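Thread title: Can someone regenerate the structure for this chain?

I was given the following input by a collaborator and told the matching structure tokens would be attached. They weren't. Posting the sequence so someone can regenerate them.
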Amino acid sequence: MILHLYFARRFAQLFGGLLLVFFLFLGLIDMVEQLRRFEEAGFGEIMKITLLNMPQVLYQFLPLVMILSAIGLFLGLSRSSELVVTRAAGRSGLTALLGPLVVAALIGAATLTLGNPLVAATSERYAELRERYGGGGAVISIGREGLWLRQGGASGQTVIRADRANADATVLYDVSFVSYAPGGGPVRRIEAARAELGDGAWELSQAKDWPLATGTNPEAAATVHDRLTLPSTLTREGIRDSFGQPASVSIWHLPAFISTLEEAGFSARRHAVWFQMELSRPLFLISMMMVGAAFTMRHARAGRTGLFVLAAVMLGFGLYYIRNFAQILGESGQLAPWLAAWTPPLASVLLAMGVLLNMEEG
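Best answer:
Regenerated them for you:
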């Protein structure tokens, strides 16, 4: 038990130290990028934006931190001959994995239950601040009462509401547009039976336009159009990203959000795949730890240490990109969400276990 606690403590210390190094390094890079992007914001606001963005950035680097921590741990144990002593005491080298394995599982569970909601909350706040200082942008809200969109630009803001929409919200039905002057009240209202987003404009069908300027009679000045073009700053990609970023929704709220999307007539496949990917994340982190251990649980005097470290890192990157590729296949409908999410981590664990058993037998 004492041996397992010793290995677990060493691994946890390495993981925490590497995570801090990544936080400082990536935070400095991100702060420089935010300074370049938001020149009008003060340094305090830049720091706030950077700190809000860092949880999302670190979340993506967790597999790399995990595999580097495992490599650092077992390289240190090999160079100090502690693994040799462990084997000489009659214990299999695989028993050295139990402590780090438990720590990796706990980190994965904490990442899923606490890290995911934290990333969702900070990402949402980061997007709000980025929009405030960047100007414009699109905001979307989906509910049982319909679809709400907001587009902005130098000429002011426009709030859009529709009863129904197609799968990517580029065709709206029974839609209304209310335009607001910069820093002022409403100046125009349009209702249309159908609106389709084209290149830089909405194409409205069967539209009625009311001017809302002060001193005018809106109904008397209203005009009816079979077709009407309304300039827009929205794009298909912008709308998709506004409601299509699953990472901005906490895993605790994701099932309800998926149901809401489906009830509103949108495709929730992307969110369903992300939900399964997040559930499988602890297993994937465990597999990264095992991959790092598989190539470094050997005596330092055996030579070619650098080659084995490079092989471990490259295999870790390869498995990470295979997982991302499976996610793309799941989002495109080529694979079932559960299959796309769980196959790469399971395959990674089996691969690492095979290498470990081969090394141990050898």
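Residues 2-134+249-361 form one domain.
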